[in-house]
Design goal:
Blueprint (H helix, E strand, L loop, with lengths): L4 E4 L9 H5 L5 E3 L12 E3 L10 H5 L5 E4 L1
Antiparallel strand pairs: 1-4, 2-3
Length: 70
């Protein structure tokens, strides 16, 4: 059962990692094999079905890259 859905505006992500550190479930990581148009590793979710929708990641993101839907 998916509790929440995360979407990312990858083209705006600068790979700062603040969202990665904010996730209490440790579900976010910076991509290891992709770069966005600006040359940064964008954030991605490893196990979307485990997301609890707390939105800590979206709150920490200085560039409003993450949207959380419940």
């Amino acid at each position: 059962m998916i509790l929440a859905k995360l979407t990312f505006k990858e083209e705006l992500c600068k790979g700062c990692g603040l969202c990665v550190n904010a996730c209490p479930k440790k579900l976010l990581q910076l991509s290891r094999d992709r770069l966005n148009q600006k040359g940064h590793s964008p954030v991605e979710i490893t196990e979307p079905e485990k997301c609890i929708g707390c939105a800590f990641c979206a709150t920490m993101c200085p560039d409003c890259v993450i949207t959380v839907e419940k």
